[in-house]
Specification:
Strand content of chain A: 15-25%
Low-confidence stretches of chain A: none
Order of helices and strands of chain A: HEEEEHEHEHHHHHHEHEH
Number of strands of chain A: 8
Radius of gyration of chain A: 19 Å
CATH topology of one domain in chain A: Rossmann fold
Helix content of chain A: 25-40%
Distance between the termini of chain A: 47 Å
Structural class of chain A: alpha/beta
Strand order of the largest sheet of chain A: 1-2-4-3-5-6-7-8
Oligomer: homodimer
CATH architecture of one domain in chain A: 3-Layer(aba) Sandwich
Largest interface: A-B, 32 and 32 residues
Largest sheet of chain A: 8 strands, mixed
CATH class of one domain in chain A: Alpha Beta
Chain lengths: 347, 347
C-alpha cells in the first residue's frame, strides 16, 4: 500500500463506498474486501425509478464530469437520482495503491469492463434497490461500460448514451493504449509497479501525458491554437498546465489497471464473441454520440457499432477538442451534449 | 565515431559521395569535411537538361524509393537522369556516427532542411553542371526539401511534386516528432547520444517504431487487417517484421538529427516568416500529392499550402496505408503515384 493524497474527497468531491466483499473477477480469482466508490446527486424517489448511471472514463473519477449535473440541465438533480460510479482500480475504488498485500501494487489483479458493470449492478440493485435505470451514459471507457450495461442487463436499461467509445476496442485503439502504457513504464522509477513513493514516476507520467496530447484532440486544434479559447497562453502552457497537470498526480498502477480494461473491452464476449449478436440484445433507446475529429475513437468505429443496435441513433459533434469534446470546455460542446441528453430523456 | 554496418552499399545500394568541404550551416557554424552521399540512375544528357532530383524521407536513404525508377515508369532512366540525394545526417552522408570528434555523436551540429537543399544545389550545379531540373519530388521530409527547392531556386525547378509533406511543419506534426524522439531517448542506453555500440539502443528504437505504427497508417488499416495484403500474417508480425525491422538497425543520433530538421522545417524563413509569400515565389508546375488517411500530414494541411502555390494542383489518394502510401506496397498506390508523376512530366 502507498499513501497518495490525490485520491481524496478534497480533490474529487464527496464520495461513498459500497462494500462488494470478496468480489469474483471475470478473468478468474477474486479481490477480497473489494470496495466500489461512488457519488450521487439528487434523490432516489419512492418508486425508485428515477436513477441515472454515469460510469466514468479512463483516469477520471466520480467528480470529473459532475458539471453535467445541474438544475435545468438534462441531468437535473431535482428530477433524477444520478450516480457516478468510480471504476474499480481508478484510485478511489479498490485500487493497486490502496489494496493491502498480497493483492496490492503490481499484484493487483487484472480486471475487465464487465467487472465494473457487475459491481455497479450490485450497487444499484442491492444497495439502492433500483431495478430500472432511466439512462446509462458514459464517455470513452464510460461508453465501454455503457455498452456492457445495455447488452448485459437489457431489461434494466431504458436509455443508453455511449459517448466516443466502443463496445469492442479496435486494434488501433489497443495500439494507442499500448503506446501510452509503454511511455509510462519506460520510466525506470516505475520499477515493474513496485515504486515506493506516490510521486516517483513523474517522468513516465509526463511521457504518458504527451501521448494523450498527441492523440487526444486533433491536428487543427493545435494549428488554430484553439487552446487560447480556454485561456491557455502558449503551447508549453497547454502541455504543462493541461495535459501534464491532469496526469502527474495520478497513480501509475491505477492508470495501467484501467488501460488494461480499456484494451480488452469487448461486449461481444456476452455472445461468444459475436459483437453484432451481443449488441442486438440491447433494448434501450440508444443514442450514440461521436466526434468527427476523434483520433483514436473515430466516427466510423462509432457508426459501425451504432448500426448494430436496433432503433439507435447517431449524433456527431465537430469540435476541435476531438476525443476530449466531452469535457465541455467549449461552451457550445457542453450545450450540444446536454441538449442531446435532454432529447433522449424526453422520449 | 561508431562502426555501423547497416550504412553500407550492401543494404542501401551503390552510392557515391560529393565532398562539400567546410559546409556552412543555417543555424550557424559549419561541418568540416562534409560529405553528401547520393545515387544516380540513367545518364545526364549532353544538354544537361534531363535531371530529376528525388530527396528522401525521414529514416530513408537513396535506396528507399528507387523502385519508382524503371523503364516505362514516370521516372524512366532511359530518358531521365535521376538523382537520390541522402539527407545530411541520415547515416550515409556526413552523420553523427561517421563524423570524427569534435563534431560526432552527440556533438553533431543541428541542421536545417535548407542545409540539405543548399548541399544538393551544389551537387547538381558544381558537380553535374545542371542548371535546370525537370522535376523535384519527395515524400514527407522529401516533400519538405521539395518545397524548399521550389521556393529557394524557382528558376531552376521546372516541376515539383511534394508528396504528403509540408512546407511548414505544423504544431501537431512537431508534437508527433517530439513524441517519437522522447520514445527513443527514454532508453537509458541512449545516454544523451553517447552510446558505445551500434545496437545499444534497441529498446528505444523499438519504442520509436511503435509510435510510427500508431500514426503511420490509419485506424482502418488495423481494423481491416490490411497488412494481410502484403503477406504479413499477424498483428505481432506487423509490429516486429515491418515497423521494428525498419527502425532497429538505424543509428539513434541519425534519426534524432533528421527529426530535428523535420520539426523545424519552414520554407517561410525564405520570406521573413511569411509562408504565403515564400510559396508564391514558386514558378514550378506543382502537383501536391496528399493522402486522405494520413494521420500526421493530414490532407487539409497539404491543401492549405497547395492553395498558396500559383497554378498548382492537388491529387489525393485514399489508401489505408495513410502516410506510408508512398511506399507503394499496394500495387494500385504505386500505379497511381507513378501515373500522377507521368502526367506531370508530360506537360
Amino acid at each position: 500500500m502507498l499513501n497518495n493524497d490525490f485520491y481524496s474527497s478534497e480533490n474529487h468531491g464527496a464520495f461513498e463506498v459500497f462494500d462488494l466483499g470478496d468480489f469474483q473477477l471475470e478473468r478468474g480469482g477474486s479481490l477480497p474486501d473489494c470496495k466500489l466508490a461512488y457519488s450521487t446527486h439528487g434523490k432516489l424517489n419512492e418508486a425508485k425509478d428515477n436513477a441515472i448511471l454515469f460510469p466514468i472514463m479512463f483516469s477520471g473519477t466520480s467528480g470529473s464530469l459532475a458539471h453535467y449535473v445541474g438544475e435545468g440541465n438534462a441531468l437535473d438533480p431535482s428530477r433524477y437520482f444520478i450516480v457516478f460510479p468510480n471504476q474499480l482500480g481508478n484510485g478511489l475504488s479498490s485500487s493497486p495503491h490502496n489494496t493491502p498485500a498480497p493483492h496490492g501494487m503490481s499484484a493487483f489483479p487484472a480486471l475487465d469492463i464487465a467487472d465494473d458493470v457487475r459491481a455497479q449492478h450490485r450497487l444499484m440493485t442491492e444497495h439502492f434497490g433500483v431495478s430500472e435505470l432511466q439512462l446509462v451514459l458514459g464517455w470513452s471507457m464510460g461508453a465501454q461500460q455503457t455498452y456492457e450495461w445495455a447488452a448485459r442487463y437489457p431489461a434494466m436499461v431504458r436509455r443508453a448514451a455511449p459517448i466516443a467509445g466502443t463496445a469492442r476496442c479496435t486494434p488501433h485503439d489497443a495500439l494507442y493504449v499500448d503506446t501510452f502504457c509503454e511511455a509510462l513504464k519506460s520510466d525506470p522509477a516505475w520499477n515493474g509497479g513496485e515504486y515506493t513513493g506516490a510521486n516517483d514516476v513523474q517522468t513516465g507520467l509526463r511521457r504518458l501525458a504527451r501521448v494523450f496530447a498527441l492523440m487526444g484532440t486533433c491536428t487543427e486544434f493545435y494549428k488554430q491554437e484553439a487552446w487560447r479559447r480556454i485561456d491557455i497562453q502558449s503551447f508549453d502552457d497547454l502541455m504543462a498546465g493541461f495535459w501534464e497537470k491532469w496526469f502527474l498526480p495520478m497513480d501509475p498502477n491505477a492508470l495501467l489497471c484501467m488501460a488494461d480494461k480499456w484494451k480488452n473491452g469487448d461486449v461481444g464476449a456476452l455472445a461468444g464473441g459475436d459483437l453484432k449478436q451481443a449488441l442486438s440484445r440491447i433494448t434501450a433507446k440508444t443514442c450514440v454520440i461521436a466526434f468527427s475529429e476523434d483520433m483514436f475513437v473515430p466516427l466510423k468505429d462509432c457508426r459501425d457499432e451504432q448500426e448494430m443496435i436496433p432503433g439507435s441513433q447517431l449524433e456527431v459533434l465537430d469540435s476541435l477538442w476531438g476525443h476530449f469534446t466531452t469535457l465541455g470546455l467549449f461552451e457550445e460542446d457542453f450545450k450540444r451534449i446536454n441538449e442531446i441528453l435532454a432529447n433522449l430523456l424526453a422520449n
